[in-house]
Amino acid sequence: MIDEKIISQAIIESYMKELISSLEVDVAIAGAGPSGLICSYYLAKEGVKVAIFERNLKVGGGMPGGGMMFNRIVVQEEAKSIMEEFNITLEEYKDNLYTASSIETISAFTYKAIKKGVKIFNLIGVEDVIIRENRVGGVVLNWTSVEIANLHVDPLGVKSKFVVDATGHDSEICRIVEKKVGGVEVKGEKSMWAEKGEEEIIENTKEVYPGLIVCGMAANAFYGSPRMGAIFGGMLLSGKKAAEIIITQG
Ligand code: 48F
Fold it and tell me: Which of 150, 154, 131, 132 minimizes the C-alpha distance to 142?
């Protein structure tokens, strides 16, 4: 017998179980774009407890759209091994560049991150951080629908040892810290220069305030580096570096 009440109960109970178990994590990541997903995967692979909070209905950030809605991405030689770790089909193009399906790529990242134990909560945005003496200690969350409807509803907090800003072009979490805590300055991204952007994104992936790591396009926005368009090697290497920074700090 299929009972509607049991279906509702199953959904609510299983969701709540996962949410309650994520109220205190090692790492809370804002944004389930490519850099956030890759960061989460490499953390979870080492046994780190990770939750991602994604404002959108769907995961993937800017990746599914490829370049101007041509749903392909370009990846360079340096990030090939990451693509291979996810068994993603690569086609060699030229100049040490490869193409891949943006849909296959983001699906593989998402699937493998979840299988490693990452908890992903979509439709929840990070609207603030929890702060302790000179350290970021977690994220402050609210439903995207609350934000869209501009309702006055108080948020809830999730504690974490580290917060990762993987929010992309707006570097949202760093901007919150800049505005409310101080001690950091978000310079804002510069116009497109693919090679420079790809080079600088690795260096820009850092702990910018105690407990707050920035990766992906947010890292370039933080340091005033250029955008790079639909080449994604830097995003992947940046996400991996963010995970390594956290793992090194224990
Ligand atoms: O923008 P996004 O894909 O960032 P990324 O991982 O990758 C950048 C590339 O997609 C592309 C590029 C390649 O060269 O430049 O743009 O750095 O993913 C960011 C995700 O964060 C979510 C947003 O919905 C998106 O899915 N996001 C943004 N702000 C918040 C957030 C927030 N405050 N709380 C939760 N999620």
Answer: 154
Q: Is residue 3 part of a domain?
A: no
Instruction: In whole angstroms, give the CA distance from residue 76 to residue 37.
Output: 19
The pTM score is 0.98
Task: Identify whether 141 is part of a domain.
Answer: yes
> How many domains is the chain built from?
1
Give me the tens of pLDDT residue by residue for the chain, a chain 250 residues long.
999 999 999 999 999 999 999 999 999 999 999 999 999 999 999 999 999 999 999 999 999 999 999 999 999 999 999 999 999 999 999 999 999 999 999 999 999 999 999 999 999 999 999 999 999 999 999 999 999 999 999 999 999 999 999 999 999 999 999 999 999 999 999 999 999 999 999 999 999 999 999 999 999 999 999 999 999 999 999 999 999 999 999 7
Q: Which residue has the tokens 């983001």?
A: 106
CATH assignment at residue 86: 3.50.50.60
Q: Is the CB of 120 under 6 A from ligand 1?
A: no
**Residue 10 CA to ligand 1 centre (angstroms):** 31
| Structural domain span for residue 180 | 26-249
Q: Which of 127, 235, 236, 238 to mutate to test the pocket of ligand 1 (most atoms within 8 A of CB)?
A: 235
Interval between CA 154 and ligand 1 midpoint (Å): 24
